[in-house]
Design a protein that fits this description.
Strand order of the largest sheet: 3-2-1-6-7-8
Family: Belongs to the HAD-like hydrolase superfamily. SerB family.
Order of helices and strands: HEHHHHHEHEEEHEHEHEH
Number of strands: 8
Distance between the termini: 80 Å
Largest sheet: 6 strands, parallel
Radius of gyration: 25 Å
Pfam families: HAD
Protein name: HAD family hydrolase
Shape: globular
InterPro entries: HAD-like_SerB, HAD-like_sf, HAD_hydro_SerB1, HAD_sf
Structural class: alpha/beta
Keywords: Hydrolase, Magnesium, Membrane, Metal-binding, Transmembrane, Transmembrane helix
Number of helices: 11
Length: 309
């Protein structure tokens, strides 16, 4: 109270009462929290997550190398080549980009931009309905078997808790929507290609949904859906998605590249790597994901064995 001596008696009295009121309130809150903690049973586990029935929570999943092995746009390119949308030399470029993605384990901006430009030029003049129909076939041919079971289990845990689950990807929104629907998810945010009269023009609406653009899309969707981002979760493999992961209260690094792994460890974010079946660096992953991790690790081992043969 010595610090209050310079005030007039009246102001000192009012200020002192405020200080005392604040201290009393803080002490009451502390005692209340302590009593609640002492009364609560010690189960030895973290609080349930995701929280069942929390309608203001949702989950946002990156697609490439998080939900699915490899990049969706490259698998899409393979399917278009099979249907004579372009020539062999273009397929070779798609194959090189896909090989880089799988070996390097992260997105190369130049490769991704080249892939997007190639895809836009290829679909120019085609009808949106045609590409959506083809997307269904391509999912069955190239994508379904590349879904990580562990990540799929994480998404299902949110769905089982009554929460909405969204894909957030730089892939074309039509393809993202097909994948989301096939996985039973709520929907997808993706890169939007311009169309006029239901026909692609070969241009984008805005920019690719990548890096900071993903974070802006998630923020906009959360506002529209009435979500509390501090209660939401986000999942990604790439350091490019740190802006999106930083938006939510429950960020997860899935199959992380080296930069994201380092960042996640520094901030004590939860980690899960389905490429090797390693345990999470932080506890608290839904139990269903543990089962998926075993399946994911087994699938990876089988794929590696087949490649070596």
């Amino acid at each position: 109270m010595a610090a209050l001596r310079w005030l007039t008696p009246r102001r000192r009295s009012a200020t002192a009462r405020s200080v005392l009121a604040g201290e009393a309130s803080a002490e009451a809150a502390r005692k209340s929290a302590q009593s609640a903690q002492e009364a609560a049973p010690d189960t030895g586990t973290e609080p349930e997550f995701p929280v069942h029935g929390d309608e203001r929570a949702a989950a946002f999943f990156d697609l490439d190398n998080t939900v699915m092995q490899g990049a969706a746009i490259f698998h899409f390119g393979r399917g278009l080549y099979k249907r004579k949308f372009f020539e062999t030399r273009d397929l070779a470029r798609f194959a090189w980009q896909q090989a880089w993605f799988r070996l390097a384990g992260f997105e190369d901006p130049e490769h991704m931009q080249d892939a997007r430009d190639s895809a836009l030029s290829i679909v120019k003049g085609h009808r949106v309905s045609e590409l959506r129909s083809i997307g269904e076939e391509i999912y069955d041919e190239y994508m379904a078997e590349r879904i990580w079971p562990g990540t799929r289990a994480l998404a299902q845990a949110h769905l089982d808790a009554g929460q909405k689950v969204w894909l957030v990807t730089a892939a074309p929104v039509e393809i993202a929507q097909v994948i989301a629907r096939r996985l039973g998810l709520t929907g997808a945010l993706g890169t939007v290609a311009e169309s006029v009269g239901g026909v692609y023009t070969g241009k984008l609406v805005g920019e690719p949904l990548h890096g900071p653009a993903k974070a802006e899309a998630v923020r906009a969707l959360a506002a529209a859906e009435g979500l509390d981002l501090s209660r939401c979760a986000a999942y990604s493999d790439s350091h490019n998605d740190i802006p999106m992961l930083s938006l939510v209260g429950h960020p997860y690094a899935i199959n992380p590249d080296s930069k994201l792994r380092k960042h996640a460890r520094e901030l004590e974010w939860r980690l899960r790597d389905y490429r090797t079946g390693r345990k999470a660096a932080k506890v608290g992953i839904p139990a269903a994901a543990g089962v998926g991790a075993v399946a994911g690790g087994t699938a990876a081992a089988i794929a590696l064995h087949r490649r070596r043969r």
